[in-house]
Amino acid sequence: MNLSGKTAAVAGGTGGIGMASAIAMSNLGASIILISRNEEKLKRTISLLDTSKNQQHHYLIADFSQSDSLDKLCESLDKHNIDILLNNTGGPAGGPITNANPEEFINTFNQHLIANHKITQAVLPNMKNRPYGRIINVISTSVKAPLNGLGVSNTIRGAVANWAKTMANELGQFNITVNNVLPGATNTGRLNEIFEAKSKKTGQSIADIKKGMESIVPMNRIAEPKEVANAIAFLASPLASYINGINLPVDGGRTPCL
Ligand SMILES: NC(=O)c1ccc[n+]([C@@H]2O[C@H](COP(=O)([O-])OP(=O)(O)OC[C@H]3O[C@@H](n4cnc5c(N)ncnc54)[C@H](OP(=O)(O)O)[C@@H]3O)[C@@H](O)[C@H]2O)c1
After folding, report:
1. Pick from 20, 11, 101: which is nearest to 59 by CA?
2. Are 177 and 165 in contact (CB under 8 A)?
3. H/E element holding 121?
């Protein structure tokens, strides 16, 4: 696996799965354009990226929930030659679908599907002119089987997966592949927030909630972000040249369907 000479734009690249993916791809030689809202975190993460193969790393600040900020990001991305795009952001708030406010669907749709779409459209003109293109979307195993208590998320994840499959159909002819990585429970800031919210609601300890989550995974543990990042780095690499339009769960076998 070698990404030398390639440039990867990594959205949501300062935490959890995004940060681990930026590290994994830089270790394979890619130059990284890191994107998130927080400049301090961006600078800190850039300092963790490998530069031993003369990689050049940059960052761009953007908030995907703000249309103006997203448009400004797209104007900047348009000027770069990007070989690999990782679409990724923070997860939606949890809660049963029966209680969901219609606004939550719209906000989540904007932050996930519309953000992916605008960013992809911004990088495509240059990507189509290059001999190489990889678009990878971080979604969730709820694409295959809805997760209880994540009503808005389940709904929007399905839309993102359908968007991605349609993109894969249209972009294969340009040697651009589009694939989705579906993390299971992964040890990131996002998961810790979910644990804390559940603990507050139920009075259960965080340790017990974690144990309960591990008990439904055949491998009996939660993933480390780098285990998801390694799958992303593989899909980004030349070794994955004929893998297109798939949903790849990285969940220790938790998803109950084939
Ligand atoms: N962790 C899990 O167990 C798990 C399981 C299934 C699916 N997923 C999904 O995988 C994705 C990544 O999850 P994660 O656990 O790695 O999340 P995380 O640790 O919370 O990291 C999220 C990243 O996205 C950035 N971000 C958040 N909101 C943003 C916004 N509005 N605009 C731009 N950037 C934003 C954050 O940086 P800034 O704060 O600097 O903006 C951070 O870099 C999410 O969609 C999540 O739902 C996670």
Report:
1. 11
2. no
3. helix 115-128
Cα(66)–Cα(72) distance, integer angstroms: 10
131 alpha carbon to ligand 1 midpoint, in Å? 30
Q: Rounded to the nearest 10 degrees, how much is the dihedral formed by the CA atoms of 169, 174, 180, 186?
A: 180
Instruction: Provide the token pair at 214.
Output: 């591990």
User: Exposed/middle/buried for 230, CB within 10 Å: 0-12, 13-18, 19+?
Assistant: middle
Q: Where are the domains of the chain?
A: 7-184+224-250
Indicate yes or no: pTM above 0.90.
yes
CA–CA separation, 151 vs 146, rounded Å?
8
C-alpha pair distances (Å), 140 with each of 93, 99, 188, 221 = 14, 21, 14, 17
- Residues having CB closer than 6 A to ligand 1 are 12-18, 36-38, 41, 62-65, 88-91, 111, 138, 140, 183, 185-186, 188-191
pLDDT by residue, tens only, the chain of 258 residues:
999 999 999 999 999 999 999 999 999 999 999 999 999 999 999 999 999 999 999 999 999 999 999 999 999 998 899 999 999 999 998 889 999 999 999 999 999 999 999 999 999 999 999 889 999 999 999 999 999 999 999 999 999 999 999 999 999 999 999 999 999 999 998 888 888 988 998 999 999 999 999 999 999 999 999 999 999 999 999 999 999 999 999 999 999 999
What the block records as the tokens of 19 is: 């940060």
Q: Which CATH class is domain 7-184+224-250?
A: alpha beta
Centroid of ligand 1 to alpha carbon of 183 (angstroms): 12
Rounded CA separation 124/222 (Å) = 35
